[in-house]
Amino acid sequence: MTLDCLAAPDAATLPLHCVAPADLAALRARLAPEAAGFLDASGFAARAQDLRLLPGGTGIAGAVLGLGEGEVTPWAFGGLSQALPSGSAWHLADPAPGPEAALGWCLGAYRYSRFKAPGRAPAQLRPPAGAGRALQAAEAAWRVRDLINAPANHLGPAELAQAVQDLATMHGARCRILDGVALQEGFPALAAVGQASIRAPRVAMLEWGAPGAPLVALCGKGVCFDSGGLDLKPASGMLRMKKDMGGAAILLGVAEMVMRAGLPVRLLLLVGAVENAVAGNAFRPGDVLRTRAGLTVEVGNTDAEGRLVLADLLAFAAEHDPALILDAATLTGAARTALGPDLPALFTPQDSLAATLLEAGEQGHDPVWRLPLHAGYDAWLDSAVADINNVSTRTMAGAIIGGLFLRRFVPTGTAWAHMDVYAWNDGSRPGRPEGGEAQGMRAIFGAIENMFGGRPGPGR
C-alpha cells in the first residue's frame, strides 16, 4: 500500500523542528535571529500540538512543533499532515525525534478515499533513518482501516476472504478458502451463523513460514455485517455494524507485519467471513448447534454470533499444536462499557502471556487492558439441553462471559489470548481519524516478536 504522505528521498524539503519546553532556549540559539524573534513575538512556548510556520524570504522557511511536557508519543505528530500546508514536503530537523514521529505522521494522514476524494493533499514527510518498521506498521494500519471502513455492500464474505488471498499472494504465503459442503462439515457453528445470507459464509486460511518453526495461530471474527439475526438489533445498533469484521481485519494487519518482518514463526491466519442476516432459514433462539470441537451449543441469542464463529476457528487452530493462539473480535458492548472505546479488553489464563501483551502495547503506544476470566461465572453458561449456552441469562459481566465461552474451545494448557476490540474511532484526534481503527495490532505483533523473534520478553 502506498503512503501518499511520504516524500521521495531526494525531494526538496523544509525543516520541521520538534521541541519540548526545556529545550526551547537551545532551539532559539540554533535558529536564525529573525526566526527566533518570530517565535518570541508569537508567544510560542512549546506546548503540545502548538505549531508555528517560520517565515522566510520566499515564503515559509520551516516550522516548529511543540511537544509539551512528558513522554513523546506518535500522537504528538498525528496532526501534522493536515496542519502543514497541503502538498508541502518536510524533514525532521536535528535533533530528530524517533520513529514514533513517522508513525504518527502517517497514521494521521490516512483518509478513506474509495468513494470520495479527500479535500486536500496531505503534507509529506521525508522518512527519517530507522523508521522502516514504523512505516510498515502504518501501511498495515491503512490496510486494516480500509477494510473496516468499507461499506458492507462492497465488503461481504467473498471480498473479505479475497483480502486474505491477496495478502497471501503479496507475501508468498499459501491460502485456501472453504465454502459450501466443506465449510458446513468442518465449521458447522460458523456455517449456521451465515446460512441466512445470500452471500455464503467462508473460512480463509493463510499459512506462512518454515516447517519446524513455532506455530502462531490468529483467529479473526469476520462478520461483514451484523443485523443481530432474529434477535434483531435496533436501527441505531446497526449503524456501525460494517465494522463487525474488525477483529479479522486487525489480524490481517498483524499477519502482514509478521511476514514483512520475517519473524521466525509459522503463521496460521484463520478468518471466519460471514454475514449475520435475517431470512426464513436463519438460525433461531433455542436452536442447538454442533461445533467443530464436538460441543453442542444452545443459542440463547442470535446476536451473540461472533463467539460461534470463533469457536470453530479456535478448535481448528488447536488441532495443529500451536505455540500460541490469539483471537480478536468486536465481541461485546460490555467491554466498551467497562473500558471505553480506546482500550481493547484482554483475556488470557496465562499471566506471562498477559504481561507480554501489556508490555508490547505500552511499547507500541497501542495499549490493552486485562480483564479476568473469572471461573466463578462459568456456570452462567450452563444449558439444560446442550453442553453450553452462547449467552448468560444474567445481564452482568458480558465481556467476561464471552471470554469464558471461547475458553471452552481452547485445550487446557494452550497459550491463548482473546482480545475484545472496538476497532473504531468515534471522532477524529491527531493520528486517529474517525472511522475504522487497527486497535491492538501493534500490541499483538510486538508480543509475537518478543516471544519468538529474538528479543526476550516476559512471556518467553
UniProtKB/TrEMBL annotation:
<keyword id="KW-0378">Hydrolase</keyword>
<dbReference type="Pfam" id="PF00883">
    <property type="entry name" value="Peptidase_M17"/>
</dbReference>
<keyword id="KW-0464">Manganese</keyword>
<dbReference type="InterPro" id="IPR000819">
    <property type="entry name" value="Peptidase_M17_C"/>
</dbReference>
<feature type="domain" description="Cytosol aminopeptidase">
    <location>
        <begin position="301"/>
        <end position="308"/>
    </location>
</feature>
<protein>
    <submittedName>
        <fullName>Leucyl aminopeptidase</fullName>
    </submittedName>
</protein>
<dbReference type="Pfam" id="PF21337">
    <property type="entry name" value="Peptidase_M17_N_1"/>
</dbReference>
<dbReference type="InterPro" id="IPR043472">
    <property type="entry name" value="Macro_dom-like"/>
</dbReference>
<dbReference type="InterPro" id="IPR011356">
    <property type="entry name" value="Leucine_aapep/pepB"/>
</dbReference>
<keyword id="KW-0645">Protease</keyword>
<dbReference type="InterPro" id="IPR048816">
    <property type="entry name" value="Peptidase_M17_N_1"/>
</dbReference>
<dbReference type="GO" id="GO:0004177">
    <property type="term" value="F:aminopeptidase activity"/>
</dbReference>
<comment type="similarity">
    <text>Belongs to the peptidase M17 family.</text>
</comment>
<keyword id="KW-0031">Aminopeptidase</keyword>
